[in-house]
Write a sequence for this structure.
C-alpha cells in the first residue's frame, strides 16, 4: 500500500504545480528536455516577433510584461532572449542591466546570443537599430548554420554546471505568463500546453513502471496505480483542452479545430496530402489512455490536420531491459502515420530507444506496407488495443504493457548493446499478405538514407535504393499497382498484391 500512497502523492503534487517548466525539466528524459527547450525558445521568439511589428508608442505597454519584477535586479522585459530592464518606452540592452550577461568573445558592436537558447560562442551585430531589432532571429540563423542541435545545447549546459541559469530563464517565461497581460495570449497557452504534456508523460510512465515492476503483486494496488496513470492523462488532456481555446487560436481569435475525429477513421480522404506550410505539430488524447492522436498545423489553414496516432512502450519488461543510462528509460514508440488521411503518406514509424540519453542514438525505422486500403485505426477491446493496418490486417497489443500479443506484426527485444554502432534496429516482422518496404537509420529520418530499402513478402526479399522510392520524405508512388510494377522491374517479378 505504501507504493500506492506514493503514486497518489505524486499525482497530487503533479496537479498542485503551477505552470513550472523548471520542475518538469528536472524530472524529464532527454527527449522531453529537448521538447521543452524548443517550446521556451519559441516563446521568446514570439515575443521578439511581436515587438518587431508594433509601433514605438505601443512598446511601453508591451514591455510591461510583469506586475512584479523578476529576481533582485528588477528585470521586467525581454531583449533578444535575455531578461533585462525597461527604461522608458524601451527594453534596454542586457549589457547594461542583466548582471549575468557576458559578452564572451563578441566584439564591442556585438552582443552574445543567449547561450541558454543558442549555445555559447555565437555573436550578433548591434551596430544599427535594424540589427538590434533582429538580434533574436539573427542568432537563430547563426544557430542553424552552426550545425548544433538543441540536445547539444542541453548537454553543454549540464556539463558546465549552468542548468540553474537555464531554469531561471524558464522561471522568467513562466512568470510572464502567470502575472502579466500576456497570460491570455496564444504564446502562453502553447507554452503551458507543452509543459503539461511533458509533465503528464513523466508521471504517467512513472506510475506504469511501478505497476509493471515485480515489487507490486497486489491486483488492487495495480489497478489503482493504472487508474492514477489514466487520471493523469485525463487531467492533462482536460487542462490542455481548456488552454487550447487560447493556445490553438488564429491571429483573429478563431479556434483551430481538428479536421476529423480519429476515433473511427474513414477511408482515405485523398490520394496525397494537401500542400502545406508547416507551423507546428501537436498531439491530443486518443481513443484510450496512452494513445495520442497526432496533428500538424498549416500556417494557411485554421484546422489541425491529422497525421495518425502513436503510443509508447516503456520498460522494464520482457522486450525492454535496463537502460544504458540509469536515469533514462528503454522505450519503443509506435507511430501509425497517415498524413492528412492520404494514401500516399500512410506508413508505420518505429523508434527504439535504448535509454542512452542521446537522441542521435535513437534507432529509427519506417515501414511501408502495401496494399494501402484504409488509414490505420485502433479500437479498445477489453484489455487489448486492436490496431488495423493500412492493409486492413490486424495487430493486437496488450493495453497494459503495450506489447504485441498477436496479429500480422511481431516484435523482438530492444537492442541494448552499449556500442551504438553495433546496435540493431527494432526487430519488427510483418507476416501478412502484403509487401513490406523498410528503411532504417540511427538518429535521422530513415527515408533520407543513401542506401537501400529492404522489400519482403512471404519469405522473398529484395533491395532497392531508397532514393528511387522516396523524394526526400515523400514516397514516389501513391498507386499500389504502379509501385508493384516498379518493384518487380527492379527485383525480377518476386512480388504480388
Amino acid at each position: 500500500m505504501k507504493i500506492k500512497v506514493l503514486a497518489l502523492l505524486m499525482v497530487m503534487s503533479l496537479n498542485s504545480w503551477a505552470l513550472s517548466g523548471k520542475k518538469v525539466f528536472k524530472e524529464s528524459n532527454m527527449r522531453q528536455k529537448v521538447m521543452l527547450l524548443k517550446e521556451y525558445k519559441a516563446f521568446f521568439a514570439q515575443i521578439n516577433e511581436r515587438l518587431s511589428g508594433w509601433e514605438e508608442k505601443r512598446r511601453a505597454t508591451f514591455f510591461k510584461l510583469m506586475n512584479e519584477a523578476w529576481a533582485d535586479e528588477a528585470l521586467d522585459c525581454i531583449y533578444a532572449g535575455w531578461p533585462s530592464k525597461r527604461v522608458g518606452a524601451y527594453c534596454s540592452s542586457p549589457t547594461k542591466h542583466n548582471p549575468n550577461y557576458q559578452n564572451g568573445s563578441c566584439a564591442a558592436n556585438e552582443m552574445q546570443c543567449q547561450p541558454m537558447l543558442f549555445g555559447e560562442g555565437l555573436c550578433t551585430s548591434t551596430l544599427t537599430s535594424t540589427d538590434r531589432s533582429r538580434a533574436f532571429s539573427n542568432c537563430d540563423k547563426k544557430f542553424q548554420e552552426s550545425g548544433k542541435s538543441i540536445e547539444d545545447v542541453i548537454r553543454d549546459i549540464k556539463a558546465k554546471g549552468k542548468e540553474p541559469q537555464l531554469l531561471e530563464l524558464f522561471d522568467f517565461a513562466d512568470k510572464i505568463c502567470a502575472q502579466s497581460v500576456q497570460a491570455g495570449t496564444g504564446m502562453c497557452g502553447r507554452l503551458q500546453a507543452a509543459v503539461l504534456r511533458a509533465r503528464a508523460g513523466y508521471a504517467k510512465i512513472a506510475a506504469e513502471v511501478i505497476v509493471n515492476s515485480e515489487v507490486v503483486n497486489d491486483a488492487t494496488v495495480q489497478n489503482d496505480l493504472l487508474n492514477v496513470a489514466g487520471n493523469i492523462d485525463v487531467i492533462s488532456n482536460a487542462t490542455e483542452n481548456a488552454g487550447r481555446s487560447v493556445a490553438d487560436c488564429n491571429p483573429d481569435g478563431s479556434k483551430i479545430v481538428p479536421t476529423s475525429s480519429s476515433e473511427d477513421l474513414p477511408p482515405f480522404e485523398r490520394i496525397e496530402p494537401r500542400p502545406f506550410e508547416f507551423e507546428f505539430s501537436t498531439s491530443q488524447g486518443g481513443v484510450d489512455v496512452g494513445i495520442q492522436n497526432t496533428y500538424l498545423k498549416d500556417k494557411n489553414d485554421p484546422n489541425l490536420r491529422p497525421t495518425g496516432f502513436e503510443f509508447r512502450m516503456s520498460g522494464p519488461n520482457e522486450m525492454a531491459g535496463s537502460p544504458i543510462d540509469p536515469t533514462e528509460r528503454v522505450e519503443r514508440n509506435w507511430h501509425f502515420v497517415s498524413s492528412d488521411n492520404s494514401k500516399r503518406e500512410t506508413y508505420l514509424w518505429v523508434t527504439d530507444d535504448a535509454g542512452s540519453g542521446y537522441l542521435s542514438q535513437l534507432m529509427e525505422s519506417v515501414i511501408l506496407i502495401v496494399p494501402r486500403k484504409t488509414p490505420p485505426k485502433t479500437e479498445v477491446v477489453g484489455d487489448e488495443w486492436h490496431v488495423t493496418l493500412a492493409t486492413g490486417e490486424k495487430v493486437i497489443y496488450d493495453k497494459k504493457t503495450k506489447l504485441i500479443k498477436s496479429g500480422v506484426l511481431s516484435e523482438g527485444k530492444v537492442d541494448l548493446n552499449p556500442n551504438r554502432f553495433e546496435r540493431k534496429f527494432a526487430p519488427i516482422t510483418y507476416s501478412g499478405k502484403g509487401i513490406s518496404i523498410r528503411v532504417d537509420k540511427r538518429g535521422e529520418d530513415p527515408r533520407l538514407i543513401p542506401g537501400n530499402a529492404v522489400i519482403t513478402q512471404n519469405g522473398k526479399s529484395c533491395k532497392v535504393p531508397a532514393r528511387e522510392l522516396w523524394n526526400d520524405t515523400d514516397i514516389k508512388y501513391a498507386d499500389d499497382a504502379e509501385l508493384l510494377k516498379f518493384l518487380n522491374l527492379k527485383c525480377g517479378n518476386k512480388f504480388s498484391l
